Amino acid sequence: MQASDLDEVLAIEKVSFVTPWTRSMYLDELANRSARSTVFRLNSQIVGYACWWEVLDEAHLMTFAVHPDRRGQGLGRAILQYIEEVCLKDGIRRIILEVGRKNTTARSLYRRTGFAVIGFRKRYYQDTEDDALVMEKALNRRNMSASERRGETG
Ligand SMILES: CC(C)(COP(=O)(O)OP(=O)(O)OC[C@H]1O[C@@H](n2cnc3c(N)ncnc32)[C@H](O)[C@@H]1OP(=O)(O)O)[C@@H](O)C(=O)NCCC(=O)NCCS
What we know:
This protein is of the alpha+beta class. The chain has a single domain, classed as 3-Layer(aba) Sandwich (Aminopeptidase). It contains five helices and six strands. The chain has helices spanning 6-16, 23-31, 75-89, 104-112, 146-150; strands at 35-42, 45-55, 58-66, 94-100, 116-125, 130-138. The chain has a six-stranded mixed beta sheet with strand order 1-2-3-4-6-5, sandwiched between helices. A hairpin with a 2-residue loop joins strand 1 and strand 2 (45-55). The radius of gyration is 15 Å and the shape is globular. Coenzyme A is lined by residues 16, 64-66, 71-77, 99, 103-106, 108-109, 112. Coenzyme A (COA) binds at residues 16, 64-66, 71-77, 99, 103-106, 108-109, 112.
């Protein structure tokens, strides 16, 4: 992700979250040496993006969205798989994330890609008055499925 991507990213962000991140929050992210911020394109158009931090052997997924017109086509799953591949190459051993209890779509995606709930933070999201579930996935090549190892999106 580069500063020149932010118009497209913010357009997706605004329709994806009740309290969208602002341009300056993304600029901070781009300047953060622990952060990896990535956009995903189809036919040169940004269809999804993700920001995660890598600290020691742990990654924390900070934000992640797919363009509303492109949802339900496997892109979210493919983006998570890409993040895992990058993390594995960087020596990351586990990915942690928070997801709203009410966000059943994202919860389903995470569960189906091997994340497990390890805790929750009550009323973590003040805008939606929602609890956050803390989910974790341990990374190592042995617990990836054969299709994941081959790079298929499933
Ligand atoms: C969550 C999000 C990234 C999923 O992206 P996507 O490209 O639609 O996801 P995929 O097409 O790869 O779907 C993967 C899984 O997600 C779940 N899923 C997708 N759409 C769903 C829906 N409408 N209802 C329930 N589950 C759904 C399913 O478990 C699906 O697995 P399956 O294909 O084996 O059935 C997307 O909905 C989004 O951007 N949401 C708004 C932002 C957001 O909530 N981000 C996550 C913050 S924690």
